[in-house]
Amino acid sequence: MIHTIRFRLTVLYSGLLFVLAALVLGGIYYAVSKSTDQRPYTTEYAKAYSGDQYLGKREVVFVQEVENAVNVKTLATLRDYSLVTLVGLYLASLGIGWVLAGRVLRPVRSITRTTEEIQATDLARRIKLDGPRDELKDLADTIDTMLDRLEEAFSAQRQLIDDASHELRSPLTIIRANVDAVLSAPDASDEERTRAVAIVDRATTRMTRLVEDLLASARRQGTAFADADLDLARVAAEACEEHTTPAAARHVRITRDLGYGLDMTGDSDALRRAVANLLSNAVRLSPPGATIRVAAGRAEGWLWVAVRDDGPGLGEEDRQRVFDRFWRGEASRRDRHTGLGLAIVRQIVESHGGRVAVYSRLGE
């Protein structure tokens, strides 16, 4: 118990009170001792002679001795009562200080008890300390904020594990089935082996793309952004340059109208990936000979980037779900894409305080 903050605060408060009281009582004792008159006590008297008034002085020694004795007794009594008062005051201050320290530290016990009860599997609890806005209230609010971040991180981790286990099951099953088929048929023809290898290659490619998308999605759910000053137009231009060759291979052209002076603070790599995901979808869904238009600008205090393509378009129901995790349209299901690309775009944009939208109609 002697090592607790409550005990140390009690001793500190009581010690300070004892010292202050001792100084006050010592000052009173000193003042009283100096106020006593040590000079001989004298008196004046009058005596009448034949109608005349005679004035004279006479020293009264025995009165002085009585006065000195009274002063000594008074000072001794004052000293004794002061010492008794100091001891009693110190003992009383120990009890009062113990109670007051307990009341002051009560929020600390509440914070400690709540944090001890919180586990990694249940991060929904919060301290939510009531009371005035003081240091302990700030401490509790800081811990609640930290728990919010921890819950978000653990939720992202669980989401990543669930998504990975769900989405990797299909390509792993395909790989294992084809490998087992080849191994269990030693007399399989070269054509059958080649077909099995091609299927395994597509499945591993899909797994690689899926893992990359899952990791990117998990990173965007965290808070470790490399924020820096950047030019959004330049970021969009770099994404366009990266997709020029893949687009040309599909006989698709990319045009740019990116403006200038689109300065902001953000994660350039993340924003580049967001634009790249939009371009990747546009290149994949555009027919040969189509043109993809990329534009960027500033309007009403907002920076914006738009990607327009000549794809098959989306119906009303699909437009509402296009940014959901693992949602895939008909073309994406045929191409066996992960369904995370546009979900990652939304995460990146929202993490920068923006919003994302799609404008499309089926067949346009």
From TrEMBL:
Organism phylogeny: Bacteria, Bacillati, Actinomycetota, Actinomycetes, Streptosporangiales
Q: Which InterPro entries match?
A: HAMP_dom, HATPase_C_sf, HATPase_dom, His_kinase_dom, HisK_dim/P_dom, HisK_dim/P_sf, Sig_transdc_His_kin-like_C, TCS_sensor_his_kinase
- Where do the HAMP domain residues begin and end? 102-155
Sorted alphabetically, which PANTHER family does this protein's record hold? SENSOR HISTIDINE KINASE TRCS, SENSOR HISTIDINE KINASE YKOH
Keywords, A to Z, come to: Coiled coil, Kinase, Membrane, Phosphoprotein, Transferase, Transmembrane, Transmembrane helix, Two-component regulatory system
What name appears for this protein in its UniProt entry?
A: histidine kinase
**Pfam families in UniProt:** HAMP, HATPase_c, HisKA
* Provenance organism: Nonomuraea diastatica
Q: What is its EC number?
A: 2.7.13.3
Please name the PROSITE patterns in this protein's record: HAMP (PS50885), HIS_KIN (PS50109)
**Gene3D superfamilies, per this entry?**
1.10.287.130, 6.10.340.10, Histidine kinase-like ATPase, C-terminal domain (3.30.565.10)
Coiled-coil boundaries:
133-167
